[in-house]
Each structure stands twice: as structure tokens, then as C-alpha cells.
Amino acid sequence: MADAERRRWTRDELLLALHLYWRIPFGQQHKGNRQVIELAAALGRTRRASR
User: Fold this and answer.
1) Is 48:33 a contact under the CB 8 Å cutoff?
2) Which residue has the higher pLDDT, 21 or 3?
3) 35: Cβ–Cβ under 8 A, 6 or more apart, which residues?
4) How far apart are CA 21 and CA 7, in angstroms?
5) What is the DSSP string of 8-36?
6) φ and ψ at 19, to 5 degrees?
7) N or C: which end of the chain has fewer CB within 10 A?
């Protein structure tokens, strides 16, 4: 994705992503995790960006 197409994270998006990061056990923080997929969809982000 080109730099011009990237969207900055809002404060609320960052807080949601950090909250999920702290809740998911180590080793389960990956783009295939159901919770990561759901958060990415809700935020309009890619799964890779949300993990």
C-alpha cells in the first residue's frame, strides 16, 4: 500500500488495539486470531495492521 493511502490510527483505535493485545495470550497474537480478525473488520483495517 502506498504511503498516501495509509490512514493514521485514531486514539480510540489505538486504545482498542492495545486492549486486545493485552488480553490475548502470548503466542496467539497473530493475524489468524478470531478476535484480531473481528477488530480489524470493525476498524476497517487489515488483520496485519491490527495484530
Assistant:
1) no
2) 21
3) 20, 23, 24
4) 20
5) PPPHHHHHHHHHHHHHSPTT--STT-HHH
6) -60, -45
7) N
Output the furthest CA–CA distance in the chain (Å, rounded): 34
Measured CA angle at 49 (ends 22, 5), to 5 deg: 150
pLDDT of residue 22: 96
Tell me the pLDDT tens digit for each residue of 7-45.
899 999 999 999 999 999 999 999 899 999 999 999 999
Phi, psi of 50 (to 5 degrees): -95, -5
pLDDT score at 21: 94
